[in-house]
Amino acid sequence: MAALMYPIVGAWAAKVWYNERITKQAAVGILVIVAGGVFIFAPGIVGEFTGAGTGGLLGYVGGAMAIVGWGLEGAIAGRALDVSDPDVGITLRFSAEVAIWIVIGVPIAWALAGGDALWSTMGDALANPTVWLLLLLLGLTFGFCYVAWYKSFPLIGVGRGQAIAALYGPFALVWLTIFTLVAPSWQFIVGALIAVAGTFILFTEKRDVLEVIRAVPSGRSRTVQENPSSPVR
Asked: How many CB atoms lie within 10 A of CB 78?
């Protein structure tokens, strides 16, 4: 569900940080997405706090962290792409992620699993040609996905770009059902459909609305009107 709700954080952060426009239709879409998320999460969270849950509170916390993290990533990328290219952004993004895994993830896994078990498992995995094929496919798909994702932010805005990308959430439900043969609960399905409807509302705006995706601060606009030849900082 984090995949459906993180555009809310991205749109809000871009609005506060660099005045990205949130139109009335976009605001309605955001509210509908929130409604879908509440429909899914509220009963489970209430159950966890009242003692009737299944011990999934840590999962809810992780989902909330993903919502905030992915949303802020989009806002940061949208700002960075004012002065850089998407291929540069993806290189920096995944280089930083690799560094985090090496510095934090691997030592924690080594401490929990034991050094011998960790390295032997990694060796067995890398000795399998199928794993290398999977890594190749993941690299190609992730590369294309992130370049297109980052490129969308300066073109149509962070909120809309993330809303389009968030549609992979419902597809995840489909694939999970196919491969695990376990259908999600009706509450989850209905909430996801509501959130998907909000996603479509968020990014299906008229073309003329997208011609100006960032509002110009009033002080700057007055400066330009009074001194047209002066450079705008």
From this structure: 27
Q: How many domains does the chain have?
A: 1
Residue 231 belongs to a domain: no
Which backbone phi and psi does 68 adopt, to 5 degrees? -70, -45
What's the number of CA atoms in the CB half-sphere (13 Å) around residue 182?
A: 4
pLDDT given at position 223: 44
Long-range contacts of 95-103 (CB under 8 A, 24+ apart): none
Matching residue, tokens 């879908």: 36
Task: Let me know if residue 233 belongs to a domain.
Answer: no
Structure-token match 């995944």, residue found? 94
Q: What's the pTM value of the predicted model, to 2 decimals?
A: 0.68
Cα–Cα distances in Å, from 186 out to 34, 128, 159, 193?
18, 39, 28, 11
Neighbours of 141 (CB within 10 A): 10
Average pLDDT over residues 62-87: 84
Domain presence at residue 107 = yes
Domain that holds residue 67: 2-226
Q: How far apart are CA 138 and CA 140, in angstroms?
A: 6
pLDDT tens digit sequence for 113-156: 776 777 888 888 889 999 999 989 988 888 888 888 888 888 87
Instruction: Check: CB of residue 186 under 8 Å from CB of residue 16.
Output: no
Looking at the DSSP assignment, which residues form a beta bridge with residue 20? Answer: 214
